Amino acid sequence: MGKKPAERVLSDTEAKAYLSSLRTSPQKLNLVAASIRGLKAEVALRALTFSKRRIAQDVKKALMSAIANAENNHQLDVDRLYVAEAYVGKQMVLKRFSARARGRVGRVEKPFSNLTVIVRERAEATGE
């Protein structure tokens, strides 16, 4: 018997990739995610390849995964894909302590983030 498959949340022209537990703050990750929102998939990959930010390589992996999902699972045209959504969520924060002078402690917070990338296929341009 088993369960019935879950309804597809996204439309037929969309594909998604989700990365959990990225070791960076959501604020820093959102700077990189904002830089690719709305770009064509090919242009976004190029931008992430040459970005100086450390976390850009993980965002690139998520984008490549979303493109692969679109191509293999949903039979979408890779050349017409663009980054429809790229959003960031907070996850846990590891709290650590560092020894300071005169017997005091300094709190060190190590935040983690989640990343969701959704690519969408553009409608065909008419009149070309």
In words, what does this structure look like?
- This protein is α+β, with helices and mostly antiparallel strands and 128 residues long.
- The chain has one domain (14-121): Ribosomal Protein L22, Chain A, CATH 3.90.470.10.
- Helix content is 29%, strand content 35%.
- The protein has helices at 26-36, 41-49, 56-72; strands at 14-22, 81-99, 105-121.
- A three-stranded antiparallel β-sheet has the order 1-3-2.
- The longest helix is centred in the middle third of the chain and has 17 residues, at 56-72.
- The radius of gyration is 19 Å and the shape is elongated.
- The mean pLDDT is 94.
Number of H- or I-type helical stretches: 3
Summed over residues and divided by their number, the pLDDT gives a mean of: 94
Helix content: 25-40%
- H/E order of the elements? EHHHEE
Number of strands: 3
Instruction: Give a quick account of the main beta sheet: strands, pairing sense, barrel closure.
Output: 3 strands, antiparallel
Query: At the third CATH level, what is the topology name?
Result: Ribosomal Protein L22, Chain A
Rounded to an integer in angstroms, the radius of gyration calculated over CA atoms is 19 Å
- Summing up helix and strand content along with how strands pair, one would put the structural category as alpha+beta
Unreliable stretches (pLDDT < 50, length at least 5) are none
Morphology call: elongated
Q: Kindly, what is the distance between the CA atoms of the first and last residues, rounded to a whole number of angstroms?
A: 51 Å
